[in-house]
Specification:
There is one protein chain. With 103 residues, the protein is α+β, with helices and mostly antiparallel strands. The protein has four helices and three strands. A hairpin with a 2-residue loop joins strand 2 and strand 3. The termini are far apart.
Length: 103
């Protein structure tokens, strides 16, 4: 169970606080003026949280790509996508037309 201590207590007993967090594998909430301000966690827990956040970012990007793919297929009515080189050629032609239109 996580424990809550004051900022003063954390400052005075910081070495003990570090040992407790590592040994008990429990976070400690540090309060100031009765309000929680920070949480002390082990480096091991911090690394685990970082990896989880990165994984969530990757999974969300993949989910967005899948949703976008479904919308594109729906809009095209089942018609297959053109080859990438054709799309690139068309984009270049449009760009060239826009550039020539600026002159």
């Amino acid at each position: 169970m996580e424990r809550t201590i004051s900022a003063t207590e954390a400052r005075i007993h910081f070495g003990e606080l570090m040992r407790e967090v590592i040994e008990n594998r429990e976070p400690v909430i540090v309060e100031r003026d009765g309000k929680p301000h920070i949480v002390v966690i082990s480096v091991e827990e911090y690394e685990r949280l970082k990896c989880a956040r990165q994984r969530e970012g990757w999974e969300e990007a993949l989910n967005r790509a899948v949703r976008l793919s479904a919308r594109i297929r729906e809009r095209r009515g089942g018609e297959p996508l053109p080859p990438p080189e054709e799309v690139i050629r068309e984009m270049r032609e449009e760009r060239d037309e826009q550039i020539l239109g600026l002159r």
